[in-house]
Amino acid sequence: MKKITMALLFAGVLFSAKSFSQSTIDQANFHGAAADLKDYKAIYIINNADDKKIRGTLRNINNAMEDPRLKGKLQIELIAFGDGVEVYRKSAHYDTLLTNLQKKGVVLAQCENTVRERKIDKANLWSFISYVPTGNGEIIIRQYQGWAAVHP
Amino acid sequence: MKKITMALLFAGVLFSAKSFSQSTIDQANFHGAAADLKDYKAIYIINNADDKKIRGTLRNINNAMEDPRLKGKLQIELIAFGDGVEVYRKSAHYDTLLTNLQKKGVVLAQCENTVRERKIDKANLWSFISYVPTGNGEIIIRQYQGWAAVHP
Amino acid sequence: MKKITMALLFAGVLFSAKSFSQSTIDQANFHGAAADLKDYKAIYIINNADDKKIRGTLRNINNAMEDPRLKGKLQIELIAFGDGVEVYRKSAHYDTLLTNLQKKGVVLAQCENTVRERKIDKANLWSFISYVPTGNGEIIIRQYQGWAAVHP
Known about the structure:
The structure is a homotrimer of 152-residue chains. Helices cover 41% and strands 16% of the residues of chain A. The longest helix of chain A is centred in the N-terminal third of the chain and has 22 residues, at 2-23. Chain A has a five-stranded parallel beta sheet, sandwiched between helices. Chain A contains five helices and five strands. Chain A is elongated. Chain A is of the alpha/beta class and 152 residues long. Chains in contact: A-B, A-C, B-C.
């Protein structure tokens, strides 16, 4: 009887040790998380009018799509709300960057609520974008649909 | 035999095409993600003392709750930590905005760790808020519970 | 027949009431979300060179690990990209803070893409860190693996 108890205890220790080693990352040999799935989706968030921040976010989207782990299997939606509406304003001239992303499959979405609250004439925003009821609602729903959320 | 193979191949092509079209969003006809679930929960994060940022975050919470896709089925918790404690400081006078959110079901939470580290007298914060061990722990646990996280 | 219908209706009302009370948090008795799982993982994001922001993020990691709800069961990875590379630059001297985190199991990761784009000599960054293809890819993949994402 004692032997069986000891054996079970020993097995338990082994099992714990295994669990522990599995959940620990070896810093010295770490080269990034593995992307084992076939499809990834991410919603990128911009709510800032700062030019550096806007260009950085658009570059970040490109970088994620070029990541060798995700290349060809990443769908991205860019959602702008609040001050972030600047990214779609014609006078701000991000159109080349935006259409280049769109050609790669990035969906460009603007918070309708921001446009209404700020009384922005949609004619001043690029016509090739889409409007969603609220940017905040979009961010929440996408996460519930399993999308990753990135707010650079 | 050949016929069956061809039929299977053809079915495979159809299936792939379907998968592809399902995972691609049609920009021209896109009006926002669909909220098919009955309940949504989101944790809103504030760690900034800037008045514009604080007011923006509180407005964002209202906008999410008023989103026609989420109206009546969104539970929100606001977690303040670090400089964000300002949102609950009596002298900052966000009380009307906060109690209006609370009446709509928003839970107001403050990082206990911030209060201790900064030696803040709780008497200087509104009495109608709750304290959680750490704001960072709260953000992590909520995501594991399936909540969306929004940091405007 | 009518009796059965009434009974079913009554049961339905009870069930709805129960669902409602379960999804509502009692502000007055709320002390934070419960951590019922055995393991938690979080990716912390830094893309800012500001000293206050960097120190704040490193302190936030410590706070999360010391949260009584998560203590001993939280694995953290810190990912730096864009301006956040500063956290690993030798001349910025965050080494004591970083190695203390590393001793507690925090994995330190730097976006390889940032290093390449900015032509940063890796000899100027601490040798005890790891490189991942892109910071943005890492953030997306980790969320798909179930990790919480925190960008203080």
